[in-house]
Design brief:
With 294 residues, the protein is α+β, with helices and mostly antiparallel strands. It folds into two domains: 88 residues, 434 Repressor (Amino-terminal Domain), CATH 1.10.260.40; 186 residues, Beta-Lactamase (2-Layer Sandwich), CATH 3.30.450.180. 49% of the residues lie in helices and 11% in strands. A five-stranded antiparallel sheet has the order 2-1-5-4-3, with helices on both faces. Helix 2 crosses helix 3 and helix 5 runs parallel beside helix 10. Pfam families: HTH_31 (PF13560), MLTR_LBD (PF17765).
Length: 294
């Protein structure tokens, strides 16, 4: 999809979710022909001409100023992530179309291996799991058994039925969060070929992904909660935090999970840590090296 079409679709989707009374406009009742705000109403709120806003919604953004985009964002009541996405759609950043393959520094793997009672892993810029500890595999997905090309959270969330069952009633929230993050990433790296290929694969293979993608939800991944129906440990509720890795441009972030101290979930994690035989990424690499032909 072209950037101009995506810009127009994004603006229409955000305009469609606002009711006149929510935007401070007087509603005269009666049936409206369009959901949400009319383009004329949005232009009035943003302080631009109707013709100017229509051109923007048609994807003509070459000469639009940051001030006008901010005015439109305020009128649409965009949150900070959506506002940043709007600016990137109007003025796409210039980056390499091919990112370097993720490279993991040994100290990062050592850090993961030192975390023995909670899941922890490193992800790349395409939701790819670059490295993980044992509890990541025990709690979420046995990544050692996953083909390398499908070792992304996007693949696992939308195409792995076993993982979907493990997420249970929390799957819709996790799927929305994943798709919103991919929207955010597509704005950051509009020319990234691997990212485009990943999104294209999901659009082709997952009807649920297609529906979520069409909603144009946008958000970065910062922190949150994971809920798992574990077949051995029972229900798990874990909070997670994401840590950027500014010294590793080929990587995206370090993901750390924790159970509430003293909770049944912490006790369940401790039991898994004591009994799990799942492989960490370091153990998998060592196993592959040991079995390789000399």
């Amino acid at each position: 999809m072209s950037r101009s079409v995506e810009l127009g679709d994004f603006l229409k989707s955000r305009r469609g979710r606002l009711r006149p009374e929510e935007a401070g406009l007087r509603s005269y009742g009666g049936r409206r022909r369009v959901p949400g705000l009319r383009r004329e109403e949005l232009a009035q709120l943003a302080g631009v001409s109707v013709a100017y806003y229509i051109r923007l919604e048609q994807g003509h953004a070459d000469n639009v100023s940051a001030e006008v985009l901010d005015a439109v964002a305020r009128a649409l009541r965009l949150d900070p992530d959506e506002r940043a996405h709007l600016h990137r759609l109007a003025h796409p950043p210039r980056r390499d179309a091919v990112r370097a393959a993720p490279r993991l520094r040994a100290p990062l793997q050592h850090l993961l291996d030192s975390i023995t009672h909670a899941p922890a892993y490193v992800v790349g810029h395409h939701t790819d799991v670059v490295a993980w500890n044992r509890l990541t595999a025990a709690v979420f997905v046995d990544l050692a058994a996953v083909p390398p090309e499908e070792r992304t959270w996007t693949h696992q969330i939308h195409l792995n039925d076993d993982y979907r069952e493990r997420l249970g009633d929390n799957w819709p929230a996790v799927a929305r969060r994943n798709v919103a993050h991919l929207r955010y990433r597509s704005g950051e790296d509009p020319d990234d070929r691997r990212l485009k290929a990943l999104i294209g694969t999901m659009l082709e293979r997952s009807p649920d992904f297609r529906e979520l993608w069409s909603a144009h939800q946008v958000s970065d991944l910062t922190h949150g909660e994971a809920r798992i129906r574990h077949p051995e440990a029972g229900p798990l509720v874990l909070s997670f935090e994401t840590l950027r890795l500014p010294g590793d441009p080929d990587l995206s972030r370090l993901m750390l999970y924790a159970a509430e101290p003293g909770s049944p979930y912490e006790a369940a994690l401790n039991r898994l840590a004591a009994s799990s035989r799942h492989l960490s990424s370091a153990e998998l690499a060592a196993t592959i090296a040991a079995t390789a032909d000399p």
